[in-house]
Amino acid sequence: MPRQPFAISSLRSRMSLAVATLLVTAPIVGMVGTTVQADTIDNDSLTVPQEAPCSQRYPLVANPAPAMGSETPKDAVRQGFGTKRDWGTEENVEILSPSATGLNEPGLRVHYPEGTSSPGDTEKGGAGFYAEEAALMSSDRGCLQYRVRFESGFDFVKGGKLPGLYGGEAPSGGTNANGENGFSMRFMWREDGQGELYEYVVNQDDKYGSSVGRGLWHFPPGRWVTVEQEVILNTPGQEDGVARVWIDGQPILEQNGIVYRTTDDVRIDGLMFSTFFGGDGSEWRTPRDQSVDFAAFRFYAPTQ
């Protein structure tokens, strides 16, 4: 399969010099950005993961996928991901066959109709659902991997949401994480395809979440990108939580000192599939009908 260049943005002085101005190559399939007013965490406070990607260190515990042969896309999502908590799956989701993804497994194509942004701003564009996984709930650490493909010529505007891990009530949309109601660790795309980790955790400084690592990687339209996220919960009463990100198998960022919780009742529950343009307001809205594909969801976690 032909290889295409995937440029990781230059990292700042406290990021590893070995990664600064790094240019790596990865197969097309992959091996190896309510108003958003997020507090942006200085990239100088981040490091580069020294560990191998979490998908290589933990056993695979689940690989949910849309159920082929279902009557509707909504049914395919509910059956394949074991959820009844969803929105936009009837209007804005299309099921892709294994041949359409080129990954030998089915996927989701999410549509963002012209003029839409976040669900609280306009008519709903995009889609969302929650998929729980028991193996994640039984551990203080978990790993999510999936693949995302922006359509060729995608207009990123100011940004939009992408899936990530969550716990508890998955606070978002300006609901503060208070230590007892859980957390959310979604991704975002930003202008020109910049990537970032977008988090609601206890020790964030802004009501609307924290923007972490913005611009340390980009999403090139027209090809699959492998996104991988590791969450290590903090010990209640301590600031020792960790988040790590790999893109196409390459180490991107490690953030330490995170407070996800103040009680052991908060666990890693599973996947918060959440995708839409925005932010609120006309400056966030997509100027035309657009779509993004998602596939190859994997959960990894330590087993007892």
What does this structure look like?
There is one protein chain. The strands form three sheets. Strands 3-13-12-11-10-17-8-5 form an eight-stranded mixed sheet. Strands 4, 6, 7, 9, 14, 15, 16 and 18 form an eight-stranded antiparallel sheet that branches. Helices cover 7% and strands 37% of the residues. It has four helices and 18 strands. The protein has a single domain, classed as Jelly Rolls (Sandwich). The relative contact order is 0.26. The N terminus is likely disordered. The chain has 304 residues and is mainly beta. Strand 15 and strand 16 form a beta hairpin. This is Polysaccharide lyase 14 domain-containing protein. InterPro entries: Polysacc_lyase_14 (IPR048958). Pfam families: Polysacc_lyase_14. It comes from Litchfieldella qijiaojingensis.
